[in-house]
Amino acid sequence: MQFILVHIVLCFLLLITCTAKANDSLVVIVHRDNPNQQLSQYQLIDLYMGKYAAFPDGTLATVLDYDQGHPLRVEFLTTLTGRPMSQINAYWSQVKFSGKASFPRAYQSIEAILKAVASTPDAIGYVPETALTEDVKVVYRFVQ
Amino acid sequence: MTLLFSVIYAKLYYRHVFEEELARSSGTVMQIGKTVSSTASIAAYLEDKDLATEVVNGLVSNDIILSAALVSKDTLLAKSILHSGPGSIQINLVNPFILSENIGTIHIAPNTQIIEQNARNIALGGVRTMLVVILPIILLLTALVYWQVTRPLNQLGRQLAKILPGSAQRLLVDKHACHNEIGRIELGINSLLDKAETLFEQERSLRAEVVELEKRFRLMFEQSSSPTLLVKDEGDILLINDAAKDLLVGMGVDVDERFPENLGLYCKTPDILYTFTENSIKQKQVMQSEFEFINPLTQSTVWLSIIMLNTLSDGKWYFQVFLADITLRKTMLNQLNKRAQRDSLTGLYNRYGAELQLLDWIDNQYTFSLMLIDLDKFKPINDVYGHNAGDALLKHIANQLSGAMGSTDLVCRWGGDEFLVARLDITQQDLTRLAQTLLESINQPMSFEHRDGHTELAVGASIGIAHFPQHAENLKGLVECADVAMYSIKKTSRNNFTFYSS
What we know:
The complex is a heterodimer of chains A (about 140) and B (about 500).
Chain A: H1 2-23, E1 26-31, H2 41-48, E2 62-66, H3 71-81, H4 85-98, E3 105-107, H5 110-119, E4 123-128, E5 136-141
Parallel strand pairs in A: 2-3, 2-4
Antiparallel strand pairs in A: 1-4, 1-5
Chain B: H1 2-46, H2 49-60, E1 65-72, E2 76-79, E3 89-94, E4 102-110, H3 112-162, H4 181-223, E5 228-232, E6 237-240, H5 242-250, H6 261-264, H7 270-283, E7 287-294, E8 301-313, E9 316-325, H8 327-341, H9 351-363, E10 368-376, H10 378-385, H11 387-404, E11 410-415, E12 418-424, H12 428-443, E13 446-450, E14 453-457, E15 460-468, H13 475-491, E16 497-499
Parallel strand pairs in B: 15-16
Antiparallel strand pairs in B: 1-2, 1-4, 3-4, 5-6, 5-9, 7-8, 8-9, 10-12, 10-15, 11-12, 13-14
Organism (chain B): Pseudoalteromonas rubra
Keywords (chain B): Membrane, Transmembrane, Transmembrane helix
């Protein structure tokens, strides 16, 4: 009887943490001094899929991403494009040879991204909302 | 025939395969287009001319594609050398990430020449294969049909043409063919020929019998001495035997004319003759009658007996006419009849002849008077002078009576020494005078020669008179009345007359 109660409590706790994690959505960030205040989903796709390497105002952009296989990268790209990862990988594999598209620069951790965005004025990256710092500015939020 | 069929079939098959191949090729072009569309949309998305050129080159490397071009929203990213624009298939490209966004088009012009060439080759190949398969089969079938069906049937036809139905000829049936259909047909024909022969044989013997019978009947008819005709009901003479021909030609009758008009021409009573034949035809029964004719050649009388017999044969009416020349018999009968009515001694009517005449008058309801005359004292003359004297006296009396009476009157020897006279429409007064005259003429003596010299013979008479129809309605009664009157004289005065009175 006590075991069952413990189980229920554990499950409940797990549910709460999961919800917390789900609530912990990604936000797209730029350098605090970046003149762009807001970016659209299309503009973000064009940046992250290598179509353009510049912000809408024309200033060159340095696109930052996580290493391949990073869970945040998977979550971010699939949510942004609405495409499964396999298609996105197929896209990149085709684009790789033409050399027309520019690849985002890859980082290992959230901290590294935060640090790079904070220190590079034309950088753009994404982090979980909970990890936000004063040094960066949010330009896009995923609507829940 | 089979070749024509093959050609038509090959033509249809070729067209079918050709069209199918064309459709398949355009389907293939579409598929190729679809296959490259994901790469093409990436090229269009990135406006990547290199990638676009790669896609176009890839497309053109297919020999069924003549030219291709890749266009992003407004700009031409890549195009093959031959690309001109019209007649191409267009595949819309969508943004690889935002599917609702149209970002470009691939233009693909299929190489119709090559496609058609291919289709033609494939179709021709198909037809060739088909012909390679079908032609031998057709040839094999034709040969098989020829050896198994056509040739045996032709042989059968030739054999049949030579066979005369009803003869002993039969088809030669191949022992090996007994079990197939043609063999069975041949066996069937042979059994039919067997039956036909039997039937023909029966028919032949029957016909021989009929011919023989007909010959006999003809002989009977032709050689018959009885004149006979066979006439159609319209009057055409179908058959006439020699006897009839002789008889009719001898009578001056045209045997080629219609019956009975040819006879009626010389008949004394043609109306009766025609009624007779018409009645016979109408009543369909045997009728016999006798007719009198005048022979126009000799102007002599000819009597014919005509018997008409109606027969129905095959729904048509015929009548047989049997003629007989009865002229001789008729004249003989007439003479006999005349003789039977006459008294041989006096030449007057006898009682039978008188009765016929009187009965005729009574039948016609004529008014007449008759006198029964009985000679007085005649028996003694007969006894004394012999029968010759009596006979002579009777002849004398008869002459006297005939002389006193007119030609329309009746004078007869009623019996023995009794006479009877009758006259039409006579008054009582005239009758009295006539009776007086008769008595006087009877009383006239007659000289009779005999061995002892000659004697005057004289007799008297008792006369009884009766009238028709006052005294009796029939002959018997009338004669009885006259008899009663006569006897009353005989008993009283003699040599006198009286009228019957009831």
